[in-house]
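PROTEIN DESIGN WORKSHEET
SECTION A - STRUCTURE
LENGTH: 138
TOKENS:
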């Protein structure tokens, strides 16, 4: 059994950002990390990009986030591979009306493939009718 098999949830970039910056909803992300969470490499890139826009260089952000996570649990970054890419493509039409990005669909695809709930701050995801459990954290 691998770490990925023991995961509790999949995090969207917005959920990890909330955790890192102590924003509303962070208290709902912490238990997922404590029990073991997954994140698509696409969402990891989105997280680091968002942090860079906030003035936190990637060279500073990566160790900061890794240290914070290691104190309480685990976050495994999952490579964006063929199966996830195909699921993300399948999600294009059902999510098009909400304008979900490739990163959003990568997150949802990982949740679907691993049969895990997805944590996000994006309230619009509540209106999605997919076979994926979506938990809006704020």
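SECTION B - SEQUENCE
RESIDUE ASSIGNMENT:
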């Amino acid at each position: 059994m691998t770490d990925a098999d023991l995961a509790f949830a999949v995090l969207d970039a917005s959920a990890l950002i909330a955790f890192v910056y102590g924003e509303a909803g962070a208290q709902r992300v912490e238990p997922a990390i404590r029990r073991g969470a997954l994140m698509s490499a696409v969402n990891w890139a989105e997280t680091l990009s968002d942090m860079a826009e906030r003035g936190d260089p990637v060279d500073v952000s990566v160790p900061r986030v890794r240290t914070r996570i290691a104190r309480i649990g685990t976050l495994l970054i999952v490579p964006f591979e063929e199966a996830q890419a195909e699921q993300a493509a399948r999600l294009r039409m059902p999510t098009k009306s909400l304008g979900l990005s490739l990163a959003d669909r990568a997150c949802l695809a990982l949740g679907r493939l691993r049969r895990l709930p997805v944590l996000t701050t994006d309230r619009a995801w509540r209106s999605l009718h997919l076979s994926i459990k979506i938990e809006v954290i704020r």
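SECTION C - NOTES
The CA atoms of residues 88 and 106 lie 5 Å apart.
The mean pLDDT is 96.
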